[in-house]
Design brief:
alpha/beta; 6-stranded parallel beta sheet
Length: 230
């Protein structure tokens, strides 16, 4: 590619676009144009559509990066013509017609499921006093506290929404595994990475919040993916 691709970042459950802060700054320092989707976490279809609209605003080559639930989003949105690469960060790389709950059913449940709260309006939260232990045990206490009180719950129905046609079957993909993940079991992540035949897999000594605690490693993986596509 004559110019660097635009990097579009897609966050996951209990998160927002600001969780990408350090990744954004790292990519910016390397000269990339970066954009970040703000997911509703209310509808997988809506979040996919929002991502596709953002892709459509950038006619140049695009690399999509998804964390957690964001992996389901980029799996479908990655079918857009100008998407040239997919990077999954401790994320769900679903197959066609597959849902997140399908993966959690025929693989292993979340190690922190006992710390989830399913409210009467069907949104899933993580208990505030269990957030750090469940999601980001390698993040500083003050940062983890802010993450816990600003967490964005996910609508339970989205876990049963299929992401649609799997872009990773046709688009080069990379995968980052978090070896100390207490949201998505590391063994499940390895299985997902093996299934999509990732061009490269890295394993970080990280909690689920790898995009925060190991942002430099994530930046380097994205940079390597972009350069390999050149």
């Amino acid at each position: 590619m004559a110019t660097k691709p635009t990097i579009i970042l897609v966050h996951g459950a209990w998160s927002d676009a600001y969780h990408w802060e350090n990744v954004i700054l790292g990519l910016y320092a390397k000269g990339y144009k970066v954009r970040a989707v703000e997911n509703s976490l209310k509808s997988l279809e809506e979040d996919i559509d929002n991502t596709i609209r953002l892709i459509g605003a950038h006619p140049e080559p695009v690399i999509l990066v998804g964390h957690d639930y964001g992996g389901a989003v980029i799996t479908r949105a990655g079918n857009e013509d100008n998407v040239v690469g997919l990077v999954y960060c401790a994320a769900y790389s679903l197959d066609e017609s597959e849902t997140i709950n399908d993966v959690l059913t025929y693989r292993d449940p979340s190690p922190s499921v006992m710390n989830f709260i399913d409210t009467l309006d069907d949104y899933i939260w993580i208990k505030y006093d269990k957030f750090k232990d469940s999601y980001c045990q390698d993040v500083a206490d003050d940062k983890a506290y802010v993450m816990s009180v600003t967490q964005k719950p996910i609508y339970a129905k989205t876990l049963n929404d299929p992401s649609g046609e799997a872009a990773w079957k046709n688009v080069p993909s990379w995968y980052q595994i978090s070896s100390k993940d207490r949201i998505i079991p590391p063994e499940t992540q390895k299985w997902l990475a093996d299934r999509l035949e990732a061009k490269k897999v890295i394993t970080l000594d990280s909690s689920h919040a790898s995009i925060i605690s190991h942002a430099n490693d994530i930046v380097n993986l994205i940079d390597e993916a972009a350069k390999s596509l050149g």
